[in-house]
Amino acid sequence: MRLKPILAAACALLLATAAAAQAPPPLTDPDAALVEELVVTGRLPGPAWWTVSDADTTVYVLGVPSLAPKRMQWDRAIFEKRLAGAKAVVLPFTNIRAKGVGALGAGLNLLRLRSGGPFEERLEPAARARFVAVRTRLGQPAKRYPTGNALAAGVQLAADYRERAELTTTDPAKLVELLARRAGVPVVEKTYDIGPLLGAIVRTPPQTGRLCFDEVLAQAEAGPGITLAAARAWAAGDVAGALENERTYERCLAAVPGGRAFDERMKADTAAAIRAQLARPGHAIALVPLRPLLAERGVLDRLRAEGLRVTTPGEVD
Fold it and tell me: What is the mean pLDDT of the segment spanning 269-274?
């Protein structure tokens, strides 16, 4: 008789060990580690600027939020001064879309993701109640999330939440592009194929997808307060405050198969675009999301390692 409690305890221990072994690691931000000497409050009015320069060329680098309020107001005096006579404006390398023959693969992957009935039917009661409350507040029906893939449901929920909260990933870059084109300044931009990213979502382990979904759900419940505070800090040149912005999307992207390699590619491409502007005398402007700009092995760290001169917002004139 006394063996039963022992056997029960042993079984419980084995089950707990197996569950822990199968549990995915927590989501991590690929840009969590920052180069602290680059995190400096701006001394000029408006958002903070860094520079990358050689003997006869300067690229003024504006670190921009990865998520911000639509139509965000900021002091553009320094930007407009630097736009005058600029030979180019490099926009953030964050655009994705279906390209060429990859559009067919993207379409097939999208069909695979958008199948399986309402996602909420797969959730346990407590999580289902939370999700239904959030999507109802966002004005979305259950059929808006017709997938069995937790990561796909999270991506759609994030998009719906951001739209309702009037948050965007494209400002202030969209305004900068408009002003540059009006001034006749060439714009440098890059677009990546979405096909491999959709394929990566399909291949993401369910446990990892659920971690992402749970984080997006918590973010939608909490509301945009963190992002609004970070945007105000950004507009005032408070770099440390601006870096407090939420990073759910970036951490989820890093968790999908190939996500880290994609992040690495974007940073390398951005650094190369800035380096290319140094080939001709004069000055240019580049916009780079803040954390990829300031992280260890980020854009500025790479350019410094190549021997280029990098100045901080405390030094920029």
Answer: 98
As a whole number, mean pLDDT of residues 277-293 equals 97
Evaluate if residue 182 carries a pLDDT over 70.
yes
Range of the domain at 269: 3-311
Mean pLDDT is lowest, of 51-55, 166-170, 251-255, 287-291, for 251-255
Long-range contacts formed by 116-121: CB under 8 A, 24+ apart: 116/146, 116/147, 116/148, 116/149, 117/146, 117/148, 118/142, 118/143, 118/145, 118/146, 119/145, 119/146, 119/147, 119/148, 119/150, 119/153, 120/145
How would you list the strands of the sheet with 89-90, edge to edge?
Answer: 187-188, 89-90, 282-289, 57-64, 49-53, 309-311
Supply the pTM of this predicted model.
0.86
Query: Would you say residue 7 has pLDDT above 70?
Result: no
In a domain, 317, yes or no: no
User: Is 316 a member of any domain?
Assistant: no
Number of structural domains found in the chain: 1
Q: Report in angstroms the alpha-carbon separations of 303 from 30, 193, 272, 294.
A: 18, 26, 9, 11
Total Cβ atoms within 10 A of residue 267: 22
Domain-embedded: residue 138: yes
- Compute the distance between CA of residue 25 and CA of residue 34 in angstroms, rounded to an integer: 22
Q: What is the mean pLDDT of residues 71-89?
A: 96
d(CA 159, CA 144): 12
Residue 29 has pLDDT above 50, yes or no: yes
Of 172, 156, 174, the C-alpha closest to 164 is 156
